[in-house]
Amino acid sequence: MTTSLKVDDKHDRTHPPNETTWIHATKAFLRWAVTPLGFCITIYGLNVVAWGGMLFLLLCNAAPAMCHPSCDDPDSARRVWIEIDSQILNALFCVTGFGLAPWRLRDLYLWCLWRLGRSPRTRYGGLVRLAEVHSKWFCFSATAAATAATTATEAPRTPTPLWKMDAVVWGNFLNSVFQVCLAVCMWAMDRFHRPSWTTGLFVALACLGAAGAGVIMWLEKKRVHKASEHPGALLLVPPSAGAATPGNGYMHLNRGGSSS
């Protein structure tokens, strides 16, 4: 009996908790992938990976049979498929670059209210609205936000640094701007007259903008989620300061304005 228990204990130790975590994560992904939104995003991501991988292989001359009469000949199969892949990837990137443009313009408008507003009330309202839109990763206190809007400086006790909101708003917006530039170059000029540097430049800039914003949101979301398990980690303002709602913020500013 003792030997049997030891064997069972050894068998349990050979299956670390990480294995169970991966199993749960895989099941959660499969449940999400069968939803309409999850299915569309999965198909979109697979297309980007597939066509991007094919373009990479073509650029590396991984298919010598397509280099006829030469690899750099404009009429060779390699150059033709490079153009086809580039156009397909451009269309895929346009789905997000153009499709998300209305929401990105809204964020830019709110950013202008926050950073360029003439009154503290306008600046505070823009920041509060941005915080509501990005509540999944951005958190702040009403008192800190009002202080930042009034003094036009970083709020010292804001859990999420305000520069991260600047980076996310402008990163997403510039992604759409550079995607427009890329689409104009891809559609207005043919492959014989299009400068080769335009495609690489605008693809790189668009990807850097979206990737920068995405990394900031992902890291901050993880930090906020982890800190929610230990409330003291975020150094939040005590509950007496009030919740971060437009009503509380406007009341705070109105009281400040009337007292001055």
Tell me what you see in this structure:
This protein has 260 residues and is mainly alpha-helical. The chain has helices at 2-13, 17-33, 36-59, 77-99, 101-116, 120-133, 142-151, 162-188, 196-228, 246-259. The radius of gyration is 26 Å and the shape is flat. It folds into 2 domains: 27-99, no CATH class; 100-260, no CATH class. The longest helix is centred in the C-terminal third of the chain and has 33 residues, at 196-228. It is built from 10 helices and no strands. The chain crosses the membrane at residues 36-60, 167-189, 201-219. InterPro entries: DUF2985. This is Alpha-L-rhamnosidase C.
User: How many structural domains does the protein architecture include?
Assistant: 2
Distance between the termini: 82 Å
The average pLDDT value, as a whole number, equals: 80
In total, the number of strands is 0
Which blocks of ≥5 consecutive residues have pLDDT under 50? 1-12, 233-260
Query: In DSSP terms, counting alpha (H) and pi (I) runs of 4 or more, how many helices?
Result: 10
Round the Cα radius of gyration to an integer and report it. Answer: 26 Å
Order of helices and strands: HHHHHHHHHH
Structural class computed from helices and strand pairing: mainly alpha
